[in-house]
User: Which sequence fits this backbone?
């Protein structure tokens, strides 16, 4: 390809876009919507995942030893607990130790300072590897002979896992649907251009322009549609994310949730949007000209 | 150089438009292709440009074997031809100048070359003053001359014109034919399809007469039409 052709293709591609203001607007609108929905669900999933990771770091459950067990019997449970799958460690905590820890947590409360250790129970701090199997692991731990009860964040963890899984499923389904819709709309926008320019295309072909030469402006049009959509979607996503993050951070009841700052995410978001946008744009234009531009 | 050998062509609907044509046109010739409506003249042109394919026979044009040409070669073959249509097929949104520049760019000509070539060609067809006009601002004869300029601008070896005088009055038709003759004298092969008997009679050039997909007469001077059967 000669160098002066590049500017020509670019110019033709751009002028194609402006000649169909409305269709161009619709194609960009749909693609932006597609990218935004895709981005939003992915960001929710990413955040839920990071919260799960946070929880996993300190994913400790407490397993209480039966009252009737002597300290020796209780210590003997360690190996049995460790043998449960998904358990990484089990640390014995005597009732005296438990009382001290409790008192340390509330140094201001005098009435907690000299409690009778007898009201506490011997326990194990059990660390879990994978939070997704928490409830199953809890059941197995409970089933160990000599363990009386278990205290876990089962509900919190379960909530995040559900959010993440739903976000992932919705995300995949929506991306697939919207991707197809976007490619379809872009493809039709470009088909309209090829229809508008059918006389020019016929003349170009008649005088011996190569297929590549005839196609390039349309590929550029698709590229520009995709790229512009990506830029717009990125700006909107940024604004949306920042607003939601601010809302969550200032909300008291949501204190537990820590939102990943956008500045850590923007390269991935920008890269994905640009890639997906261009893929949709160029894919749309190729599907539009595939049939239309045969010799 | 154009060669057709035992060429047959059938349209998808079963119409046998060409039923065995053999003819050859040498470089630098000026040839009229005549015959009644529906006899297959336009089909021959479509065969020459590769728009339709023959179902039998061989076609050679300017060194390309059109009957078994590869897709990549078709554009190169077409660059050796300049086609003129009865309905001009100019782009109305573009000025005369841009109509010509457009087809030069389409074959990858450098901008400098385009700027040099267009004034020369416009002068040849007598439209140097109309470069910035739009096709709708021109008379029928002027539009047809733009179509000729466009066919010439890429410097083809052969000019093929399908009914170039169809919309013109006899005076303009004669002028246009004279212009094609001038172009032929500059070294370009010219093939003109027409059914204007009077016009053909005024030039003593080779006339190939087609009827129902066959060559029925081939010789210098005079429009023979279908009367050969009589
Ligand atoms: N696209 C097509 N599909 C089917 N049949 C066609 C097609 N084009 C032309 N024909 C038929 O092929 C035959 C030759 O047509 P062609 O256009 O070559 O005639 P022509 O000599 O150019 O006539 P005219 O002087 O009216 O332009 C005619 O019978 C016509 O009906
Ligand atoms: Mg015809």
Assistant:
């Amino acid at each position: 390809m000669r160098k002066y052709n590049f500017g020509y293709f670019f110019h033709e591609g751009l002028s194609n876009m402006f000649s169909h203001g409305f269709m161009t607007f619709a194609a960009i609108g749909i693609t932006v919507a597609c990218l935004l929905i895709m981005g939003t669900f992915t960001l929710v999933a990413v955040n839920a995942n990071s919260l799960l990771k946070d929880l996993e770091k300190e994913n400790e459950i407490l397993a209480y030893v039966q009252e009737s067990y002597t300290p020796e019997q209780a210590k003997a449970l360690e190996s049995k607990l460790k043998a449960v799958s998904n358990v990484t460690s089990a640390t014995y905590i005597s009732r005296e130790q438990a009382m001290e820890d409790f008192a340390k947590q509330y140094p201001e409360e005098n009435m907690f300072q000299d409690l009778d250790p007898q009201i506490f129970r011997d326990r194990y701090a059990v660390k879990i590897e994978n939070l997704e199997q928490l409830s199953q692991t809890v059941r197995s731990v409970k089933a160990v002979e000599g363990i009386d009860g278990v205290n876990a964040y089962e509900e919190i963890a379960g909530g995040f896992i559900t959010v993440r899984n739903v976000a992932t499923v919705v995300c995949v389904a929506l991306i697939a649907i919207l991707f197809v819709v976007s490619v379809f709309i872009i493809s039709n926008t470009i088909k309209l251009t090829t229809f508008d320019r059918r006389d020019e295309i016929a003349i170009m072909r008649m005088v011996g322009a190569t297929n590549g030469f005839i196609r390039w402006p349309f590929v550029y049009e698709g590229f520009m549609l995709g790229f512009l959509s990506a830029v717009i979607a990125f700006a909107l996503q940024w604004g949306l994310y920042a607003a939601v993050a601010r809302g969550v951070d200032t909300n008291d009841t949501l204190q537990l949730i820590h939102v990943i700052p956008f500045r850590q995410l923007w390269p991935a978001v920008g890269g994905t949007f640009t890639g997906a946008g261009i893929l949709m744009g160029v894919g749309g234009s190729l599907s539009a000209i595939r049939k239309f531009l045969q010799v | 150089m154009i060669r057709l050998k035992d060429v047959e062509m059938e349209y998808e609907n079963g119409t046998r438009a060409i039923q065995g044509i053999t003819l050859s046109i040498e470089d630098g010739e000026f040839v009229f292709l005549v015959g009644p409506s529906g006899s297959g003249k336009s089909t021959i042109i479509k065969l020459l440009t590769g728009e339709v394919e023959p179902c039998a026979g061989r076609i050679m044009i300017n060194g390309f074997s059109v009957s078994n040409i590869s897709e990549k070669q078709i554009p190169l073959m077409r660059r050796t031809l300049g086609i003129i249509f009865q309905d001009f097929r100019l782009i109305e949104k573009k000025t005369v100048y841009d109509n010509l520049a457009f087809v030069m760019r389409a074959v990858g000509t450098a901008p400098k070359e385009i700027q040099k070539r267009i004034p020369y060609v416009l002068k040849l067809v007598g439209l140097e003053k109309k470069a910035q006009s739009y096709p709708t601002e021109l008379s029928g004869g002027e539009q047809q001359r733009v179509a000729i300029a466009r066919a010439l601008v890429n410097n083809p070896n052969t000019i093929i014109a399908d009914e170039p005088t169809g919309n013109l009055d006899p005076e303009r038709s004669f002028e246009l034919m004279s212009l094609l003759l001038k172009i032929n004298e500059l070294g370009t092969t010219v093939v003109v399809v027409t059914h204007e008997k009077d016009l053909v009679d005024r030039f003593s050039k080779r006339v190939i007469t087609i009827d129902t997909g066959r060559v029925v007469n081939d010789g210098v001077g005079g429009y023979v039409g279908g009367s050969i059967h009589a």
